[in-house]
Amino acid sequence: MAARSADHSSKLNISAALASVSVALILVLLKVWALGATQSLSVAASLADSALDMMMSLAGLMAVIYAARPADEDHAFGHTSVEDLTALAQSLFILISAGVIAWAAVGRLQSDAPTPLMAQGRGIMVMAVSIMLTIALVLWQRRVARRTRSKVVAADSLHYLSDLLPNLGAIAALWISHQFGIGQVDSIIALAAAAMLAFGATTIGKGAWDALMDRSADTTLLSGIAAITGGFPGIRGFHDLKTRTAGSRVFVHLHIELDGDQSLREAHAIGAALRRRIIETYPQCDVIIHKDVAGET
């Protein structure tokens, strides 16, 4: 059952990664055309972001495919840590792109000869299509991330979600430039987009770093496992509940206290039933249970 659940989660993660690559490629092609027509820096910022999206989506696709490989002799706990490495790399790329966009925006604001925007209608049309495609992708990614707990899918979803405001900002900049001739708003919106990208990158990077440093799972999951164990039939107590995360998997180690006079078969049955209950409740968990005699721990 646990193996089937993990296989289904892997398929969902791969489907989300394939959708991400496809949408990113379409957006890059559309925005290259829009940039050539408009010369808008906010469109350029959105294009740079989409180009990075495509590169990171490809990396994410390779990561989830690799993470789906079963445990082997050299990787007894599986390959899911590659998700954290990929998410950390994604955050670094996002930070770099945010810095480049901010630098270009400040330079244009300080320029004595502002760059005129052109063909705003075409640019608005492209950005509107980009928004619709991005919303559809984010909805699917968020659904997958909730079911599989994949950090790569969650990071990709957060990044694409952060794209919505820059895309809306680009539309606003093009419209204001067309209606009022105020080209500086384009650079101001690009600066806001860069700040939002930097914030998202920091959030993604922190989560990946915590996982790579074997930080414990979130307190909600720990409390849930403790509640299941504490009220489970035949268990007189538990201790040493420890967790670590690796990509979309959570590894759980737990000591339970049992009646020392019961048979080994009975003790095993209690431990196996508890393990099944935890995995049914939290499918992302890999559970190891140690059995101790109550009062002798």
Q: What is shown here, in short?
A:
This protein has eight helices and three strands; from the N terminus they run αααααααββαβ. By secondary structure, it is mainly α.
Question: In the CATH hierarchy, what is the architecture of the largest domain at level 2?
Answer: Up-down Bundle
| Strand count | 3
Q: If you compute it from the alpha carbons, what radius of gyration comes out, rounded to the nearest whole angstrom?
A: 24 Å
Low-confidence stretches: none
CATH fold group of the largest domain: Alpha-lytic protease prodomain-like
Estimate percent helicity.
over 70%
The CATH superfamily of the largest domain is known as: Cation efflux protein transmembrane domain
Protein topology:
Elements: H1 2-38, H2 41-67, H3 81-110, H4 120-148, H5 151-180, H6 184-212, H7 219-230, E1 237-246, E2 249-258, H8 264-281, E3 285-293
Parallel strand pairs: 2-3
Antiparallel strand pairs: 1-2
Helix pairs in contact: 1-2, 1-4, 2-3, 2-5, 2-6, 3-5, 3-6, 4-5, 5-6
Give an overview of the whole structure:
There is one protein chain. This protein has helices at 2-38, 41-67, 81-110, 120-148, 151-180, 184-212, 219-230, 264-281; strands at residues 237-246, 249-258, 285-293. It is 71% helix and 10% strand. Strand 2, helix 8 and strand 3 (285-293) form a beta-alpha-beta unit. The protein is built from eight helices and three strands. By secondary structure, it is mostly helical. The protein folds into two domains: 2-212, Cation efflux protein transmembrane domain (Alpha-lytic protease prodomain-like); 219-293, Cation efflux protein, cytoplasmic domain (Alpha-Beta Plaits), CATH 3.30.70. The model has no long low-confidence stretch (mean pLDDT 75). It has a three-stranded mixed sheet with strand order 1-2-3.
